[in-house]
Amino acid sequence: MLRSLYDWTISLAAHPRALWALAIVAFIESSVFPIPPDALMIPMIIAAPRRAFLIATVATVASVLGGLLGYAIGALAFDSLGFPILEALGKGDAVLEFNDRFNSMDFWPVLIAGLTPFPYKVITIMSGWTGLPLTTFLVTSVVARAGRFFLVAGLLYFFGAPIREFIERRLGLMTILFVVLLLGGFLAVRFL
């Protein structure tokens, strides 16, 4: 099922209204959809490199707006909608334990989930459920999602189709390594 959903998402890249399709995918990915917008962005940018940064802008705006929906689900309908979504993603058991630590980490969970392949929708719902300040959530979401989507757009714009395999297979790992190094740097400065 996931493969057919991925193939359907990829087929949207050739649609005349691909930007609208990207906006919809990026919006719903931030609260319920399992396929990241990168799957649609990459073929769109390869097909029209001059539009790379417009495509990244559409993905960023729609993703942040979708993140606000996820936040609202967590804040207003966690028991009826949020928990079942998290449970379907295999995160139901960790929810209660995670709640205790979530807000003490400030903006870091939103930043990390927004930049890495970690399901952003989990963090959007958790942010609303735990009562993370909306301003913190919103600012961090804009920074994280723009960072991720503009990185992909920039790589494709400057290096073209040959970088596609790297982005699809290794960018998530490289981003995780970057975040680990960033956190390690902050911890080293703080404790040394």
Automatic annotation (TrEMBL):
Residue ranges occupied by any VTT domain in the UniProt entry: 36-157
UniProt keyword Protein biosynthesis present: no
The organism's place on the tree of life at top rank: Bacteria
Keyword tRNA-binding part of the UniProt annotation: no
Residue ranges crossing the lipid bilayer per the database entry: 52-78, 171-191
Keywords assigned: Membrane, Transmembrane, Transmembrane helix
Classification via Pfam families: VTT_dom
GO cellular component terms attached to this protein's record: plasma membrane
Protein name: Cytochrome B
Organism of provenance: Pararhodobacter marinus
